[in-house]
Amino acid sequence: SVPFLIRLFPSVLTKFVYLNFLAFPFFADFRRPELLVNNTVSLHLTTEPGVTVGIWHTVPGSRAAEARGQDQRWYEEALADAHPVIIYLHGNGGTR
């Protein structure tokens, strides 16, 4: 019966594969990552028309003093400087 239900309702399979309806830890505000992780800001990238991807930009501990109290513009400019950028992809389940 499971394959039949998946054939009738393919969106159910998508929900269980990606688990995008869950937010863990519960009651965390992922729009404000600075409350969870030091030296972090939430940004949004438009990859193509109508598609926006949310990202967190975290600077390393060696730049922590420089990042303290800075606004989002500083973090955006930090992405363009000579320091390397490491991209971490968390996988298909859960949230940032």
Q: So what's the overall shape? A: elongated
Helix content: 25-40%
User: What is the SS-derived class?
Assistant: alpha+beta
- Report the count of strand segments: 2
Spatial sequence of strands, sheet with the most strands: 1-2
Intertermini distance: 34 Å
Protein name: ABD12 lipase
Organism: Oxyruncus cristatus
Q: Could you characterize what this model shows?
A:
The chain has 4 helices and 2 strands, in the order ααββαα. The chain has a two-stranded antiparallel ribbon with strand order 1-2. The longest helix has 9 residues, at 10-18. It has 96 residues and is an alpha+beta fold. It is elongated and about 60 Å long. A hairpin with a 2-residue loop joins strand 1 (40-48) and strand 2 (51-58). Helix 1 crosses helix 2. The chain has helices spanning 2-8, 10-18, 64-67, 72-79, and strands at 40-48, 51-58. The two termini are 34 Å apart. This is ABD12 lipase. It comes from Oxyruncus cristatus (sharpbill).
